[in-house]
Amino acid sequence: MQGVNESRFIKNTREQALANPELAAVKNSETKKLNLYQAVNEALATALATDEKAVIFGEDVSFGGVFRCTMGLAEKFGKHRVFNTPLTEQGIAGFGIGVAAVGHTAIAEIQFADYVFPAFDQLVNEAAKYRYRSGNEFNVGGLTVRMPCMAVGHGAHYHSQSPEAYFAHTPGLKVVIPRSPIQTKGLLLAAIRDKNPVVFMEPKILYRAAVEQVPVDDYTLPLGKAEVIKEGKDLTVVGWGSQLYVLERAIAMAEKRMPGVSIELIDLRSILPWDIETVTKSVNKTGRLLIAHEAPQTGGFASEIATTVQEHCFLRLEAPIQRVCGWDTPFPLVFEKFYVPSAIRCFDAMERALKF
Amino acid sequence: MLAALKAPAAAAAAARGFFSSAAKATAAAAPGASSFAFSDSTFATHNCEDLPSSTTATRDELLGLYETMVLIRRLENACDQAYKGKLIRGFCHLSTGQEAIAAGMEAAITKNDSIITAYRCHGFTMTRGGSPTEIIAELMGRRAGSSKGKGGSMHLFAPEFYGGNGIVGAQVPVGAGIALAHKYRDRNAMCFSMYGDGAANQGQVFEAYNMSKLWKLPVAFVCENNMYGMGTAASRAAASTKYFTRGDYISGARVDGMDVLAVREACRYAREWTLADKGPIVLEMVTYRYGGHSMSDPGTTYRTREEVQHMRSTSDCINGLMDRIIQSGLATEEELKAIDKKARATIDKAVAEAKASPEPDMSELFTEVYAKGTEPTYLRGRIPSENHYF
């Protein structure tokens, strides 16, 4: 993916990696060069090693899965803990809910986020509400459902979608999307250990493209907490997953063409619950906001952020909140480059906001 | 063809002799116990050995089964009354007529085994240990309800009873997952994953069959075939109404679900089968609901009143057991009437307790969405002053 290798958000050395205050607990850890799918693998191996009740299942996972995220885990931890399911997304989700309802740690993989819709009922009606509707007698806090999401360059309708907004509409679930290998390991372990069902979406284009020095020790990163990954004073930009690298490039263009301008970039990380405080604090400082995501604009999660920010920052806003999103169409194969919120489209919107 | 379509499913079933009651008591098999023979039509099997042709039961066991069924019927009648009195609102599905299944199943299993079922769940909640007060209060939306009044009729839970599930068929793969957890923990326990003849056509059921057989999970899939999926006769919705054979590669048995001893025997068989590491089994309990699908269904538009009356008078599970008990001489009619009276008092008391229980506090609206201590900063109410801050 363009811009990932050169990104300033990618931690290429142990020192850079461990400078993050959120990693203070493992500041003496060794680090290892891993790409994002290897970081998923590390997190899953750590979960299996530290929690004997943890099991992993999904389509082809005992062979490593289509993206190699579970490679070697069945050999290391046993086929009874890492096993293949039939092609049965609804069954996988329901089955995972049952496993978790008994108090186990169920880590399910849906092969692509685009395939999660047969399981939507199970996740929305069964997983999200189990605690509430049983009066806390049962819960499925041990359930984590992983799925690759976002564009990959050639995925077309059914291998490109970003369904985070559908799940964000469901109290009881948590929704998390990481941006890099270090983030992935920490957020995935936090998701697995969180006492609520978590939908964990992995930007598939970063599986191999994003490479970092990842701490070897066991660590988690906070859910529900955004991270300011670049500070600025004139415009707040919010994104998640691989879109952050697009936004980084757009910001570089804007800051070059408009000397003196500085733009703040926030990685939302958790879509539900989302970190209203960090975002509104930033907008109250800059007075301007742009949100970008690949999912279609109408009913996308940007709408929720925009509404909340205008409630909290109404008198401070200097320009209309900008949304740069996928078009309200299915995700097209041949038009992918026009469909996604590209750096140029993001740059245009930044200019609109700054010159309003 | 037309004639076949018009023939009420239950009458056809009766003609096949599913309900031809039962089993005459024979000489006592052991002190205090009698042997009861099943009829030729009590069971049918699919790729497994025949079920026993008779069973034995002690006086205490028989009276226990009788009491459980009577309590469930009183409970359902109380719900019906309270619904008509507008104390219960919303969706409510009664199991009147089907009591033998909850009672017989509980008598065959241990407290470590699990049950998960669909929305016709009041009886199972009680047999698993939920109190009548908890159940009625839940339906009324009161604090004493098993889910603090937040769920209502379809959402009842008890130890090793994973609900009350409102989405048709959704609980079936969940039951398979519960069974995996039992196997993984080596607990010598299994799960009954239950659904109706309507849900039997859901894709998830077959997904769960496949996974369970593939991994040899200790799960018994139990189809409560009450002849009608909502208002549609089973034969109009299912290409095959031999639900016990629809696991194909999974063995199965059809059971006279109006005979509580047959239900108990079949559940024992299924439990032993699954715990012997033979994988899943399918049981079809052929039964009948006297009432409509739900409170808004009078239950007489898609079947005749005569059919319902016929089933009540020839196949009722409580009357069937009562006849057996009296014929066997293990208890008298007076003793059974005393049980009826006690059950009525128990349920009346539960109704009074439920009525006396207040509605849940408003703050409960925001609890149990997330695990305590892990909540987001706040959850929204309708207006800002109703927002709940954790």
TrEMBL record, chain A:
InterPro entries: THDP-binding, Transketo_C/PFOR_II, Transketolase-like_Pyr-bd, Transketolase_C. It catalyses: N(6)-[(R)-lipoyl]-L-lysyl-[protein] + 3-methyl-2-oxobutanoate + H(+) = N(6)-[(R)-S(8)-2-methylpropanoyldihydrolipoyl]-L-lysyl-[protein] + CO2. It is an enzyme of class 1 (oxidoreductase). The keyword Oxidoreductase applies. Its EC number is 1.2.4.4. Keywords: Oxidoreductase. Its cofactor is thiamine diphosphate. It comes from the Eukaryota. Residues 34-209 form the Transketolase-like pyrimidine-binding domain. It holds the Pfam family Transket_pyr. This is 3-methyl-2-oxobutanoate dehydrogenase (2-methylpropanoyl-transferring). It comes from Polyrhizophydium stewartii. The lineage of its organism: Eukaryota, Fungi, Fungi incertae sedis, Chytridiomycota, Chytridiomycota incertae sedis.
Automatic annotation (TrEMBL), chain B:
Residues 68-362 form the Dehydrogenase E1 component domain. GO terms for molecular function: pyruvate dehydrogenase (acetyl-transferring) activity. It catalyses: N(6)-[(R)-lipoyl]-L-lysyl-[protein] + pyruvate + H(+) = N(6)-[(R)-S(8)-acetyldihydrolipoyl]-L-lysyl-[protein] + CO2. The keyword Oxidoreductase applies. Keywords: Oxidoreductase, Pyruvate, Thiamine pyrophosphate. Its cofactor is thiamine diphosphate. Gene3D superfamilies: 3.40.50.970. Its EC number is 1.2.4.1. InterPro entries: DH_E1 (IPR001017), PDH_E1_Alpha_Subunit (IPR050642), Pyrv_DH_E1_asu_subgrp-y (IPR017597), THDP-binding (IPR029061). The keyword Ion transport does not apply. The pyruvate dehydrogenase complex catalyzes the overall conversion of pyruvate to acetyl-CoA and CO(2). This is Pyruvate dehydrogenase E1 component subunit alpha. The gene is PDA1.
